[in-house]
Amino acid sequence: MLGYVARRLLAAVPIALGVSVVCFALVHLAPGDPVQTLLPPDADAATVARLRELYGLDRPLPVQYAAWLGRVLAGDLGRSIATGRPVAEEIRRSLGNTVLLAGLSVLLAFSLAFVLGTVAGRWRGGWLDRLVTGVAVLGVSVPNYWLGIVLVIVFAVELMALPASGMAGDAFDPTSWDHLRHLVLPVVTLSMIPVGIIARTTRSAVSEAMNQEYVTTLRANGLPEWRVLRHVLKNAMPPVLAVMGLQFGTLMGGSILVETVFSWPGSGFLLSKAILARDVPVLQGTILVLAMIFVVTNLTVDLVQSSLDPRIRRA
Amino acid sequence: MTLRRAVLALALLASGALPPPARAQEQVLRVAMTAGDIPSTAGIPDQGFEGWRFVGYSLYDALVSWDLSRADRVADIKPGLATEWRIDPANNRRWIFTLRQGVTFHDGSPFTADDVLWNFARFTQEGARQFNARQFAFARAYLGNYESIEKIDDHTVAIITKQPDSLLPYNMSFLMLVSPRRSAEVGDDADAFARNPSGTGPYRFSRMVPGERLELVRNPDYWDRARVPRHDRLVLLPMPEASTRTASLLSGQVDFIEAPAPDAIPRLRSSRMQVVTNAYPHNWAYQLNFVDGPFADIRVRRAANHALNRADFTEMLGGVALEGFTNMPPGTAYYGSPRRYEFDQARARALLREAGCTPCRVTLAISTSGSGQMQPLPMNELVKAQLEAVGFQVTFQVMDWNALLQVGRDGREKHPGIHGINISRSLQDPFNGMLRFVWSAQAAPRGSNWGHYRSAEMDALIDRALGEFDDARRLALLTQIHEKMSEDAVMLWVAHDLNPRALSPRVRGFVQAQSWFQDLTPITLAPR
């Protein structure tokens, strides 16, 4: 098992390298550079050239990449070109805000979707199933930034019950009602898509498991229905877990759209700013960290899956 | 008995023994900006003119300031940390600035000529301890003609320019002066300074959450007594999404928002919000290519200008724009009586036929969004429809803001296939408003003359204006320049933004100046 974990972690190295090369190349393929939006719109070309030189943006791409990689290996993600602040600090702060948002959305989405999906799968074809399927399709299909705007109009503008934007302060304080209020709308908005996806996966996994012969055997042995369901759920878990893991990774990446709608200073918001400003150090650093979160999440899911289902043998 | 009580009460009052009246609740003004992040607090701000508007001129002053107290005319410069300036009678490249006395930085240190020299070293001298690459880059846009600075005495400095430059005082208004003492305290590290800045401005720094909020408090010792803020605290929040700003105002989270979307304005009005607009020196237009393609012919440029029905644009924008017939909005001191390109499709068609450009194929570079670009996509679609109605065939090259700025800086040489660029421009002073677009010395990539417009007559007018230190005579020359720009149809003019802002009904005392900058200090807030 330990050897397996070590191998998987080692495999993350080429992934990280690949992700960073692709990201670096994409940013430089796009026209424009960080200096364009940094300077006042009226700056002349000589100033642009001088600043590009000061930031080392005039050097050949492979040299720039190698310099960046060298610093990262030494544990330094560099400084943001747009704000001058250390990239690590920018990522830590925004990722913290996103983890808070995503963590709560994950909790809400996973628990809600699991219950909904199980109910739908167990009573497949019934009115409950149709209702849940309807909700799931709606959750996946409705663009979440649109839903966010509608929720803001209803709850912030019309009812004035909840705040429309921001997070009320720098450090989250779970005992502060004001801080909690700021979380409600973005968390609900962000959880809609994963609710839809996970509910559908759970439903099909449960209903498939319900058709297995061992269910008939369990029932024939006179097991009460809730205990039958427990066995079914255990068998239905692996695909559900895999999907949950992917959703968790996606949410951690932050939603550019949802965070922008709610002015939530998370990693999605940070990424969108960095893209528009061509802030290469921030982009590279953030994408690298997010890629690693994906790798670790997938690994964790695989480990949990294999512990739940011994048939999944890891050589 | 009653008398004794009265005497006793008076005595108590006099001795201060009566409890003071309960301290009024802190007045907080919360502003939602369009910027995606808090503008830099390290001196000269980033995030475009919004950075100067809310952070630069709040924390700091420059030698020259802007008079933002009136709404009825285009704002002009006024004394700031310098009380007066004049050209050296013996040398027309040497400006002499007399500094204001009795000014102190927020950290208590006095402001003197040495501080001005120290700040100029921060902008320009790469070897200096306090030199900062970002401040250098920001300052350089305003120091293109700067040669050196010298101290005459503790309260007088002289600035020497490379060429005679009658417009130099305008450039000085963008150079924020910071406290050398505070900078020394943080080891001359501009990033550390930005976390605890000290200037001379009407607000002092209170706290900052990067990416989320900046809080400033009233500077009760501000040197301009008329501009000591009337509220206690100013909270600046970055909110790039227009609908988020609108919702935040409607739900009472903020008191003042920049640029609500035009279609949200009726909704804001119906909720008793104050929607304010005013002309300001902004130009939504296309700079044209004078070398490659059809716009090299003046008849084609005039045809395009006659093809636009500008009233349709203001209608589409819900009335928050002025029709743009010329480079400067009317109300500018050097507006003059320029040729006016009225909507006249027959004339436009005739001009195109005369020029032999049928169909007249043009390619325009446009952006999907960007600072000052208003509603770029629907506006460009309308331009295309109206141009094509008279015989143009318009192709768009759509790009993001950053890429369009790059095309703008490169100039036409690198992009011969592009015949016009849609970068909306700020026109806050004669150089930025006119000269840089039509001066051959400013041909891109050196400057903002993107399409390489060249006219010996125009160059001569510009040389004379820059060398003319008499205000009235210079004004006459600038007026001629503006009129000639229209005569030569140097751009395709469309609209001037009216810069809508929305304020909660609690906000009192705001005067919207005809400027990119605004003065928030007179604002008070009525109790909830």
Which features characterize this protein?
heterodimer, A: mainly alpha, 13 helices, B: 528 residues, alpha+beta, 7-stranded mixed sheet, 31% helix, globular
Task: Provide a short characterization of the protein structure.
The complex is a heterodimer of chains A (about 325) and B (about 525). By secondary structure, chain A is an all-alpha fold. In chain A, about 75% of the residues lie in helices and about 0% in strands.
Whole-number total of structural domains of chain A:
1
- The percentage helix of chain A is over 70%
Distance between the termini of chain A: 9 Å
- Low-pLDDT residue intervals, each spanning 5 or more residues of chain B: 6-23
CATH architecture of chain A: Orthogonal Bundle
Q: Using the coordinates above, name the CATH class of chain A.
A: Mainly Alpha
SS content category of chain A: mainly alpha
The helix/strand order of chain A is HHHHHHHHHHHHH
Describe this structure in words.
The complex is a heterodimer of chains A (315) and B (528). By secondary structure, chain A is mostly helical. Chain A has a single domain, classed as MetI-like fold, CATH 1.10.3720.10. The mean pLDDT of chain A is 84. Chain B has 528 residues and is of the alpha+beta class. Helix content of chain B is 31%, strand content 21%. Chain B has 17 helices and 22 strands. In chain B, the strands form five sheets. Chain B has a seven-stranded mixed β-sheet, with helices on both faces. In chain B, strands 13, 14, 15, 16, 17, 18 and 19 form a seven-stranded mixed β-sheet that branches. In chain B, strands 4-5-7-6 form a four-stranded antiparallel β-sheet, with helices on one face. In chain B, α15 crosses α17 and α16 packs antiparallel against α17. Chain B is globular, with a radius of gyration of 25 Å. The interface between A and B is large, with 54 and 57 residues.
